[in-house]
Amino acid sequence: MIEDPFLARLEQLVADGQRRILGLVGAPGAGKSTLAEQILEALPGRAVVVPMDGFHLANVELERLGRASRKGAEDTFDSAGYVALLSRLRAPRHGETVYAPAFRREIEEPIAGAIPVSPDVPLVVTEGNYLLLERGHWKAVRPLLDEAWYVEVDPELRRQRLVDRHIRFGRDEDAARKWVQQTDEPNAVLIDSTRDRADLVFRWPS
């Protein structure tokens, strides 16, 4: 469960009822989605999760671009679209529900319009890998966040989680370990280089 200091920060974020955006950043397998779900439980009816993963490019487009073998890298997302959505979420029109895409791991594809964000929800939690990256369209993300938390866990546990996840969604063990080594880990190194731009670090116990 979320410890009291973090709960206090969440309550402070939503205290005035105005729209706020909290970014959860971390390497693949760090536990960002788990933390986001715990925030939803801690703030029932006052938060919604909008994952960056909804902006994965479709598999057919990744194939066309020759990037399918690097799915998850910074250039395999519609980063400009993500920035545009955050801008809408930060200042929604009066009475407007904004719809965000979701990512479905069972089909490895994004689904448009899957997450409704009603105008009366004070906290949008967005979680993903590249929220603190300072290049391309990604550099426009950090100014749109009211607060950013860097999420981390023991590296060996994180890598094993990734292997288990890839196996769960269809890869054999050898393919899963190869993907983690050749794709997930280079991404993790890049993401870790952005750690200092976060407001605080949330570390899971080993």
Account of the protein in words:
With 206 residues, the chain is an alpha/beta fold. It contains 6 helices and 7 strands, in the order H-E-H-E-H-H-E-E-E-E-H-H-E. The protein has helices at 4-14, 32-42, 59-65, 79-90, 155-168, 173-192, and strands at residues 20-25, 47-49, 98-104, 109-117, 123-128, 147-152, 200-203. Strand 3 (98-104) and strand 4 form a beta hairpin.
Instruction: Give the ordered list of helices and strands.
Output: HEHEHHEEEEHHE
Q: Major β-sheet, in short?
A: 5 strands, parallel
How many whole angstroms does the radius of gyration measure?
A: 17 Å
Q: Strands of the biggest beta sheet: in what spatial order?
A: 2-5-1-6-7
The CATH class, by name, is Alpha Beta
Q: What CATH architecture label applies?
A: 3-Layer(aba) Sandwich
So how many helices?
6
Please tally the β strands and state the result. Answer: 7
Number of domains: 1
**Shape summary:** globular
The end-to-end span amounts to 14 Å
Low-confidence parts: none
Mean pLDDT score:
93
Helix coverage percent: 25-40%
Percent of residues in β-strands: 15-25%
CATH topology: Rossmann fold
The CATH superfamily is P-loop containing nucleotide triphosphate hydrolases
Structural class: alpha/beta
Attribute tags:
206 residues; alpha/beta; Rossmann fold; 5-stranded parallel sheet; two-stranded antiparallel ribbon; 7 strands
Write the layout of secondary structure elements.
Blueprint: H1 4-14, E1 20-25, H2 32-42, E2 47-49, H3 59-65, H4 79-90, E3 98-104, E4 109-117, E5 123-128, E6 147-152, H5 155-168, H6 173-192, E7 200-203
Parallel strand pairs: 1-5, 1-6, 2-5, 6-7
Antiparallel strand pairs: 3-4
Helix pairs in contact: 5-6
